[in-house]
Amino acid sequence: MRRALRTPGIVVGLGILLVIAFCAFLLPLFVHLDPFSVEATSRLKPPSGEHLLGTDNYGRDLLARILAGAKASLTVGLSVALLGIVFGTAIGIAAVFSSTLDSVLMRICDGLMAIPSILLAVALAAALGPSTTTLVVALTIVYTPGLARLVRSRALAVQSEMFVEASVGVGARPLHLMFRHLLPNTLSVITVQATFTFAESIIVEAALSFLGAGVPAPAASWGNILYDGKSVVSRAPSMIVFTSLALVVTVLALNLLGDGLRDLVDPRTRRQARLATKGAA
Predict the structure, then answer these.
(1) Cα distances (angstroms) measured from residue 46 to each of 55, 66, 233, 234
(2) Boundaries of domain holding 75
């Protein structure tokens, strides 16, 4: 914990994410922001005291829509990251203990990873129908193979360590090896990767919503806000500017958090960073 608090990426990234999460989930309850309230006479208004970020092309409060979009993006991204950890860990560990499963599961993962993630996500979302649940399912299918291969490679490296061989030598069962040695030594790596999966899921969710295959209207999403704003960008640039800024800041915070966690769990990265700092000095 002390090292984490001394890691700037973790402190800054987590702090920004907590602020965004508070604004997305709790702030609308206190200030009564309604993302669905339509005022036909207030279309495309600039920022003002009544509407801090202005209104969209239907007269809805843009701040309320952006905060609702943040809630949707964080929900989708966190769900995909957690499900990816669960399924990716299960597939990767199972592949280590069975050569037959290894061949089958890894070939399936290779086939899925050969397809560009955005195309696979669009195809799955279109096949399952536009909704938040199907979007989570589609993105989980997209990102689980990469996480599974990461867990498998890390578990194979741990399996060759002397302490694991010693456990096997004294008669340790596969379940003991799995929960006592492999899982604890792979979760740190996959947790770091999950933060980047979180960020990528937010970007892909916005892209799918922009294309009409993500969160369905009238529910708010950063993607469909950008889609509505592209046709009125000359009259109401705030729709594009503020929504894009929210997306960039959130993804940047997640990347900072992931980099900080990577520095925390990988001593080689910390050592290389210290050597680079000394060399620059």
Answers:
(1) 7, 15, 12, 12
(2) 2-36+49-280
